[in-house]
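Might you be able to consider the sequence and fold that I enclose below?
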Amino acid sequence: MTEKVATPPAAKLTAVKGMNDVLPPESASVEWFESKVRHLMARFAYRNIRTPIVERTPLFVRGLGAVTDIVEKEMYCFEDRLNGDPLTLRPEATAGVVRAALEHSLLYDGGKRLYYMGPMFRHERPQKGRYRQFDQIGAEALGFPGPEVDAELILMAIALWAEIGLTDVRLELNSLGQPAERQAHRQALIAYFEQSIDTLDEEARRRLYSNPLRILDTKNPQMQSLVNAAPQLLDFLGEASLLHFGTLKSILDANGAAYTVNPRLVRGLDYYNLTVFEFTTDRLGSQGTVCAGGRYDYLFEQLGGKPTPAVGWALGVDRVLALVKTADGLGTTAPLDAYAIVTDAAAMPLVLSTLQLLRVAGLSVQMHASGVEGMGSMKSQFKRADGSGARYALIFGSDEIATGQVTIKPLRDPSVLQVTQPLADLALWARTLQSNV
C-alpha cells in the first residue's frame, strides 16, 4: 500500500508590495476626483489622450536621460518574449504622449491641449505617498511657445485646488533657462562644488559631473549651507529667458495667484527648460510635492521629431486625495435611490423587468438576490436595504404581486409617507424622484 504524501498548502496570493488594491468605498474617492478633473479639463479645452502602459525602453532612456534616477534605478524593464524587444512599464506619461504625437502627426494642424489619467510604475521602496504603482493625472500643451500657456496650466491647477477644496498648497517657480545658459551654470556649479568635495555626500559626488543640478535638490541637512550658497541659475539667464519668466509672473500677478520664486527648484528629468514649477504642502512630510511641471521644448527633438515647444504638469492622485479626504462628498458614492425587497423568488421575472424600467428612467436600484440561504426573511432584507444607504425600499410582497402593485417605503426621511401604488405608475414616480434631487 502506497503511503499518501501530504500536499503542502498553497502560498497565500497577495498583491505585489507597493501595488495596492483600491476597494469601495475608497474607490469612490478616485471616481469623485477624476470626475472633477474631467469637467475642469473640458472648461480649459483640454482633450483626453490614452497611451500604452508598456513602451519600448529606448523611449525613456532618450527622453528622460540615461543618468536620471528613474532610468538608472526605478524602471520595470523586461524583454518581449516574441521578438526580444526591450520593454518598460511606463514610469511617467509625458514621453509617451510626445511619442504618440510624433507617430500620429498629431500637430500637423496646430498645437494641441491634452490630458491623461492612469497608472505609472517605478521600482522603488514603497512608502506612504510613494508606491510602485501609482495613478497620475497630467496636462500637456504641445506646440505653444509662449509664457501665457505656462500660466494657463498653472492657473488650471489652481482652479482644480479650488474645485476640490484644497487650500494649504503653495506654488514655487523657477526658470531653467535654455541649454547654453544651463551649461554655463553647470560649469559654475562643478567648479563651486569641487572646492568643497569633502563636504559632498556619496550621492552628490556621483552626480557632480553627470548631473550637478540635481545636487541642489539634496535633502542632506549637512549639505544645506553649501547648497544655499551655490551659484544660482537665474544669474545666468539671458534676455529672452528673463522676459519669458517675467511675463509668466506678471500674468500670475494679474490673476491673484500667489507664488514664491525658488532658485533651487530643479527637475529630475533632462527634457525641461525655461519655466518649472511645483505645488507643495507641509502636510505630507517628505512627499510634499503634490503637482509638478514645466516647459520641455527639446523633448520632441530628443525623440526624433522637429523642434516643438511644449509645457505640462502631472499630479499624484494618492497625494491629492490624502489632502482632501475630509472634503464634503469625497469617499462616498452617489446615494442609492432604491433597494428592492422580494419575498418570493418566483416573482423575480416581474421584479427584474420593473427595476430595468426604473434604471432606464435614471434611478440607481439594487435588487435583493438570493444566496445560499435563500431569499431571507423580510426583516433581514430590510436590514440589508437600510445598510445599502438607499433612500427607499421597494417591497414586492405576495399581496403586492397579486394586485400588480409595489409598496414604496422611505428609509431616510420620516416625514415622507409609505405608499402602495400600481407598477404601471412607477415610471412617473421615478421621474418625480429625479426632478426633486
